[in-house]
Amino acid sequence: MLGVLVLPLFFLVALPAVYLGALHQPAPHDMRVAVIGSGTPAGNLATGLAAQVGDSFEVETLGTVEQARSALRHLEIRAAYDPATATVYVASAGSAAGANAAEQLFTKVAAQTDKTLTIEDVVPLPASDRIGVSLIFLGLAAVVAGFLTATVLNVAVPGLSIRRELGYLAGAAVAAAVIPMFTAYCVYGVFDSAILGTGALLAAICFVTGVFHAGGIRLIGPAMVMVTVFFTVILGVPASGAAVPRDMLPDFFDWLNPLLSTPAALDGLRRVLYFDGTGIGRNVVTLAMWALIGFGLLALSTLKSPKPEGAPGPFAGLTDDSETPLDPAAAKLKQRRVTAGVLVMPLFFVIVLPLSFIGALHSPTPYHLKVAVIGSGEPATTMIKAIEARAGDGLDVSRVDTVAEAQRKLKNLDLRGAYDPATGDLYLASAGGTQASATVTSVFTTVAQASKATVTTHDVAPLSAHDPLGTSLLYVGIGAILAGFTTGIVVSIAVPGLGTAGKLATLVVMSAVAAGVETLYGWVAFDAFDGQAGPAALMLFGLALVSGLLTIGGIRVIGPAMVLVSILVLILLGVPASGLVVPLDLTPPFYGIVHNVLPTASGLDGLRRIVYFDGHGIGGDVLTMALWALGGLGLLVLGHWRHDKGSDDAMHDAELLEDTAAAATAAAAAG
């Protein structure tokens, strides 16, 4: 019992700690920029600028604009400033956040000389991938496919030869290349070039991850699950620089970047997709090194002493061998059926993960984003009509009578912005979503310029200085969700003799532990809770509890196959539909519809309302979570009643256990 609870404890401690440490407060450090020009003026400007920025930027000089363009295309610098023309050259495809940081630096430089800065994007992001994160979910799908394939094969088919396992991993690599690419290239139209290079990289990262994980499992057993997840996902994703550039991360993650396989894969994808493969050699070498490590682990595993006849394997208890056929042909047929059954899990992730996340995030576009004009009479009406004519379905424009009413609606998240044409004041709530606030600011700045007015912005619900991206709540919330989810799995599958009361008691205790740990992160360690630690802790407890109740109750009724349902509801749909990653009124309408239905989407939204909006409008979120909790309890009671009545219990169906129990455990680790 204590042993299996290591898994949820691992997730609730490690994942939010690493992600918050890496991403909660990004700032430039040693970011390379350049001043264009030769001679004394350019040198003096670069020297003076370097003295002002300290360790934040490394400032150099480049002789010509063409040299600057070449350096940007090779990802050697983030930006280059030409003082002769007040033009800053960037490559936003290398990192939108990095380009923005460099632009802000040179905007101040241009302002000191009373010049208006001109931005030229040498390698821009396409309109179909506006924030440049689609490649993350292509790469993650491949990583998870390799990890899950190796896990489920070693759990469900422990006697599989290394040669056959490598064959299955090669097949998984092909699927991990073709299926996510179909989603990105054909379903959403995010990319339209570099098909061969992208496919080769996706297949490579799937195979490399699978070989490394398979070798480790054969050598040290189930503990390898946490080792692989730690290096490939928990450390690998933030260290990749795919979400936040490496020169805006703490030094530790910048140091890790060239060493780990996931950063090599994601950086390689960026270079292939946007930079014609420039500089990809280092990424290929890193992946090759991890492949060699994996093959080395496989070789070492063959030197282990064989287990005595009848000794339990490392995953004993997760599968039921009591009905293994004695006939060799029948045993081989059963092995093939079991293998095909458990491979559904990596296939599920390869299909659904990019489909859900790329669909939500690849091209944030306003869709019925609610804004208001403050005032009455003809001026307000005229402005509303003009905005509606220009915006179409992008904006829903209404009128409010007073500033107080506008502020109230902003704090309830009923509005994204409100503009007073009489004073030029723009009111918004950046804690509701930085992308939505940027859209509102852009719209009303354009409106004000048409009437030659100056906009003054008032943020009625600003983000904390310790959480400038507004993502800290997402990471602590996911930590709580995974804690409840994995606790539900391990008490249902790995401890089958535990009674219903024991499962509930364990879940309550682990939910309290999760709430306590995540609250310490959000309140003490990273100061993101802004004086709302108590209510936030209750919401985190609710997130963990609901996630666990749904998983335990569903497993009790339909068996470990419920894990697929829980992953879909709690993570793959619940997280993008929460609005914490991208505001819902910038995503396709589907995500806004399911937001009010899914428990984790409501819970994460409720966490934001508690911390930044004093709990305004939280009633609907609490009601949704309560209904799902009751549903989970109902499933648990139903399963308990069926068991007492002597009905078939999904948890004791030998065939179902053999086909899906291993996949359930692997899914918990991959979540």
Short description:
The chain is an alpha/beta fold and 671 residues long. It has helices spanning 6-23, 40-53, 65-73, 96-112, 134-156, 162-187, 195-220, 224-234, 236-239, 251-256, 261-274, 281-301, 328-342, 344-361, 378-391, 403-411, 434-450, 472-494, 500-525, 533-558, 562-572, 589-595, 599-613, 619-644, 654-670; strands at 31-36, 57-62, 79-82, 87-90, 118-121, 369-374, 395-400, 417-420, 425-428, 456-459. It has 25 helices and 10 strands.
Question: Which features would summarize this protein structure in a list?
Answer:
7% strand; 671 residues; disordered C terminus; single chain; 62% helix; alpha/beta; five-stranded mixed beta sheet
What does this structure look like?
- The chain is α/β, with parallel strands linked by helices and 671 residues long.
- 62% of the residues lie in helices and 7% in strands.
- It is built from 25 helices and ten strands.
- The strands form two sheets. The chain has a five-stranded mixed β-sheet with strand order 2-1-3-4-5, with helices on both faces. A five-stranded mixed β-sheet has the order 7-6-8-9-10, sandwiched between helices.
- The two termini are 21 Å apart.
- Residues 310-322 and 647-671 have low confidence and may be disordered.
